[in-house]
Amino acid sequence: MNLSELQASMLRIRLVEESIANKYSEQKMRCPTHLSIGQEAIAVGVCSNLTNEDQVLSTHRAHAHYLAKGGCLNSMLAEIYGKVTGCSKGMGGSMHLIDKSVGFMGSTAIVGNTIPVAVGSALAMKIQEKKSISCICFGDGATEEGVFYESINFAIIHNLPVLFICENNLYSVYSGLEVRQPKGRKIFEMVRAFGIESIHGDGNNVQQVSDYVDLARGKILSGNGPQFLEFDTYRWREHCGPNYDNDIGYRKEEEFLEWKKKDPLKDIFENKDLDLVKVLFNKFNAEIQRAHHFADNSEFPSDKDFQQIINS
Amino acid sequence: MRKITFSEAINEAIFTAMRESNDVITYGLGVPDPKGVFGTTLGLQDEFGEARVFDTPTSENAMTGIGIGASLNGLRPVMVHQRVDFFLLALDQLINNAAKWNFMFGGVCRVPITIRLIVGHGWGQGPTHSQNLQSLFSQIPGLKVVIPTSAYDAKGLLLESIFDDDPVMFLEHRWLYGLKSNVPKSSYRIPIGKANLVNEGSDLTIVALSYMTIEAIQAIKELEKIGVNCDLIDLRSTSPLDFELIRKSVKKTGKLIAVDSSSKSFSVASEIIADCAIESYDYLQKPPRRVALEDAPAPTSFGLTNSYYNGALEIYNEAIGLLGIKEENTGSKFIKEKPHDVPGEWFKGPF
């Protein structure tokens, strides 16, 4: 994928997320929703290097990962609308996305709890001698969970084909890193001390993310064991919901503006070829509008659907 | 037919499953060690290799999640912990992931993992080495909970559990490992959710599970001597729970005692009595009774465990109390030659 394809993919995700934010107040998407706006480069940079046989697991903030991996947009929006046409038939909502056809194996609402599941997928790949990798995306908060250490430790012992992607966006809900981790700690350095190759990059630079992931995937498939990548980035909107929240007091407007200057999409917005940009905007916005229409007009799951799933 | 012990039956079930399917893997702390988890995992690594049978870090939560991930990719993991109490570190993976994964992704992601957990009783195991948490697991929709008594049931139910497509909690009572019963060498399966009518009688229904079934068998033998004949139902699983068989029995006897190995409040025994009150009220001749532990952590001291734990004597006393039979010194019927806190003279610890 060349740079413009990476950028187009990021733009599509941004526009999907903004459409959700814009329509959220309609009260038709009735579930907690964690937007990825500002963090698109990591999802796109990572997934652009993966095949459909490579698996990805994600977190509560999963929309970008799901879409970057090739997950169906209609199914995602229908899931957020709670419809039976959703990727989880309306049982999961925004935080439980899945599209197995493209190797997006799921996302969950509990911080850190997909990390061992991804390691288990890698264990199965190793036992089954598959030429694929398992990739797990999580945030800086997850690195504070015991299961994070436990999972990496096991992956190293068994030399498993797993790629750990830490998206460090500085906040766990409203709590900054300074109240959660020792001053001066670098997550990637701490992890390197566990005994795993670990590097750090600019999470808002999609080409750099892509290059690092390409390298890491190659090492994993060559039998060099699990790899860890930490990328710096920033969550533009509130932890959960459609709004900006720089005014409520846990972080400063200036901090947000600094990160906004590093918008992963800035190249596309500064692109001189306005016609090309316009074509992309129109194309994606039309697709997104159709997807909302599909979701809005789909049926809710029936009690019969519910009974069928719980008794299956 | 040959007799083998409960632990040998578990071992044989895993051997059988691993021969029947390359998808079955077995792991847990101590699985390939010289003691082989009370003998239940001995020989497995020699036969099936280190890729399919392995020891683990002391990481209960991650190892559960790893089993989930492996099971989502077609494997059938059998994980074991030396104590149920250790496994409590893994409740996030169990309750938030294993139990709900298939549901929360719309019914397209089965999690065929079997989690073997050892529950206990006495010999100084105390508050955090001998809990009986069947009701805790049974309260979580999405989990099956199997709790066998005989070696025969242990083999057939473990094979069924391993090849079940949903997560199964398989609870093994430490005091059952040495008990023998007839067990076929061949592969056979016992469906989960079907209780076993161990004894038939028309005077009283006794429902028990796991090791408490052994105590109940002793109690009903003494009850027979005074002319009281009991239906004894061994649950074999607590989720799903075979309420049908219990209702059928209570319809016949009109009297119920539910025996449990856990503390009494919110126990499996309580659930059985609740169902009886709702579904069998018209047939009840007497209020049901419950034989279960006091709502307290298990004491460690030899000086306290005799009065804390229930056995055949307590079941017998509840039975004659319920039936209105007056009898003195019933304890003389159940004099134990062994110390009260071991399953037999053979048990010398240290764990």
Structural class computed from helices and strand pairing of chain A: alpha/beta
* SSE string of chain B: EHEHEHEHHHEHEHEEEEHEEHEHEHH
Report on the biggest sheet of chain A: 6 strands, parallel
Number of strands of chain B: 14
Number of helices of chain B: 13
Domains of chain B, number: 2
CATH topology of chain A: Rossmann fold
Class by SSE composition of chain B: alpha/beta
Kindly state the percentage of residues in helix of chain B.
Answer: 25-40%
- In order across it, which strands form the biggest sheet of chain A? 2-1-3-4-8-7
Beta-strand portion of chain A reads 5-15%
Q: How many beta-strand elements of chain A?
A: 8
Protein model, in words:
The complex is a heterodimer of chains A (312) and B (351). Chain A is an alpha/beta fold and 312 residues long. Chain A has a single domain, classed as Rossmann fold (3-Layer(aba) Sandwich), CATH 3.40.50.970. Helix content of chain A is 43%, strand content 12%. Chain A has helices at residues 3-23, 40-47, 63-68, 73-80, 115-127, 146-157, 187-192, 206-221, 253-261, 266-269, 274-297, 303-310, and strands at residues 55-58, 104-107, 134-139, 162-168, 171-172, 175-176, 197-202, 227-232. In chain A, helix 1 packs across helix 11, helix 2 (40-47) runs parallel beside helix 8 (206-221) and helix 5 packs parallel to helix 6 (146-157). Chain A is globular. By secondary structure, chain B is of the alpha/beta class. Chain B has two domains: 3-182, 3-Layer(aba) Sandwich (Rossmann fold), CATH 3.40.50.970; 196-334, Rossmann fold (3-Layer(aba) Sandwich). Helices cover 35% and strands 18% of the residues of chain B. Chain B contains 13 helices and 14 strands. In chain B, the strands form three sheets. A seven-stranded mixed beta sheet of chain B has the order 3-2-4-5-7-6-12, with helices on both faces. In chain B, helix 9 (211-225) links the parallel strand 10 and strand 11. In chain B, helix 1 (6-20) runs parallel beside helix 8 (151-162) and helix 3 (60-72) packs parallel to helix 5. The mean pLDDT of chain B is 96. Chain A binds chain B through residues 57, 86-92, 96, 98, 100, 105-106, 108-110, 113-128, 134, 146-147, 150-151, 153-154, 157, 308-310, 312, and chain B through 25, 51-52, 56-57, 59, 61-75, 92-93, 96-97, 101-109, 141.
